[in-house]
Structures are given as structure tokens and as C-alpha cells.
Amino acid sequence: MRTVRVLLAEDHAVVREGTRQILEADAAIEVVGEAADGAAAIALAARLRPDVVLLDLHMPGINGIEATRRLVADSPDARVLILSAYDEEDYVAAALEAGARGYLLKSSHGREVVAAIHAVAQGQVVMDARVARRALRHRDAPAADEPTPREVDVLRLAARGLRTKEIAAELGTSTRTIEAHFTSIFNRFGVTTRTEAVMYAASRRWIRPQEDAAAR
């Protein structure tokens, strides 16, 4: 496994130091820089070119949402993973709309954060199950929304970051068929994007992106 270069953006020094220790205990993670506010995170990302920016939402100056938006625009190769104390739907939706590739709560275990960093670096979408339930408002969803086995295969590959053509090649079918699967999935789940579909399926435990990646 290649080393993942991480930029850590957190305004509380003690939290930042503790998080750094957790990350650097993994031999395949290198913390290349630290930022105490959004402006510093944006500037450091442009200079250091990290693979992943582990970003808090509540920071002085430029907040995490705006910082995410600028990071995605200015440093497109750096994937943003939110690590926040907030699980409210508005925060989650805003972060995803800004371009974040994952959202974890600060109550997560260190091993979960490490696994999420590796997953996001590989192009996967990572979402805390508790957060996904709020973000997608599916608590009362009927059982009829359950995907077919083939749709589960499509969702697992989409969670790994594969494009339509790559999914079709993996499953030995045409791109038109894959597009039809996504149309069916969107209608069944009541979502409009692949990221939302993956998050929805992961929150219902129909797919397990991190476990699937580890099993490959």
C-alpha cells in the first residue's frame, strides 16, 4: 500500500496533536502539514499537494464548508475528508455539496479514521452510518427500496470510485446497461447523485465500502 500524504486541518492544538499521533501510528500515512484555520489549509494544500485533507468544519476565519469548496477548486487532486463534532443534516449536506468525499464524526475510533483516509485516497466515498441516516432521511423508508443483487454490485464498484465504463468492464456488460442500473437505483432510493446512492446503500449496510476494499 502506497503512503497517503495527509494535511491535518484542526483549530484545537490538543486535538490536532492527538489526531496526528493516531495517523502516524500507521506506517502508510504521512502527515505532511498542519493547519489551524481554513485559510492556512487552503494555502498549505496548494503548496504541499496532499492526497487527503482531514478537515474540521468549525474553524476560525474561513470555515470548513468554504474551505472544502476552495480546496476542491484549487487542489483537485486532494480529497477532502470531514472530521466533525456536528452530525446535523444541514452541515453534512453542505459539506457534500461543497465537494467533500467523506464525513466522519469525532466520536469515531482512531482505526475508523485511518481506514477512512485510505478509502478516500483510493477514490471511495466514506460516510459515518449515523450521519448518512440523517443526511438521506431514510429512517422510515420501506423495504421496497432494497437494491437487486446486480445493483449492489454496481454500487460497490461506484463506491470504489469507478466510472461507468470501468464498472461495465468489471461486470462484463455495456455502459448503457450500467446507466440503466443507476437510473433504477436513483428512482428506488429517491436520490439524484451517485455519491448519495452510495451513502444511502452504505448506511443501510447493503454495501460496506471499507470492508469490501480490505477484502480485495
Overview of the structural elements:
There is one protein chain. This protein has 216 residues and is of the alpha/beta class. The chain has 2 domains: 4-136, Rossmann fold (3-Layer(aba) Sandwich), CATH 3.40.50.2300; 143-209, Arc Repressor Mutant, subunit A, CATH 1.10.10. It is 53% helix and 13% strand. The longest helix is centred in the last third of the chain and has 15 residues, at 175-189. The two termini are 12 Å apart. 40% of the residues are buried. Mean pLDDT is 86; it is low at 138-142.
Question: How is the secondary structure organized here?
Answer:
Blueprint: E1 4-9, H1 13-24, E2 29-35, H2 38-48, E3 52-55, H3 64-74, E4 79-84, H4 89-98, E5 102-105, H5 110-121, E6 126-127, H6 129-136, H7 149-159, H8 164-171, H9 175-189, H10 194-203, H11 209-215
How many separate domains make up the residues? Answer: 2
Placed side by side, the strands forming the largest sheet appear as 2-1-3-4-5-6
Say what the CATH topology of the largest domain is.
Rossmann fold
Q: How many runs of DSSP E, i.e. beta strands?
A: 6
Helix percentage range:
40-55%
- Regions with pLDDT < 50 over 5+ consecutive residues? 138-142
Sheet-strand content, in percent, reads 5-15%
CATH superfamily of the largest domain: Response regulator
Helices and strands, in order, run as EHEHEHEHEHEHHHHHH
* CA(first)-CA(last) distance: 12 Å
Profile the largest sheet: 6 strands, parallel
Query: Average pLDDT across residues?
Result: 86
**Level-1 CATH class name of the largest domain:** Alpha Beta
- Specify the CATH architecture of the largest domain: 3-Layer(aba) Sandwich
Judged by helices, strands and strand pairing, the structural class is: alpha/beta
Choose one word for the global shape.
globular
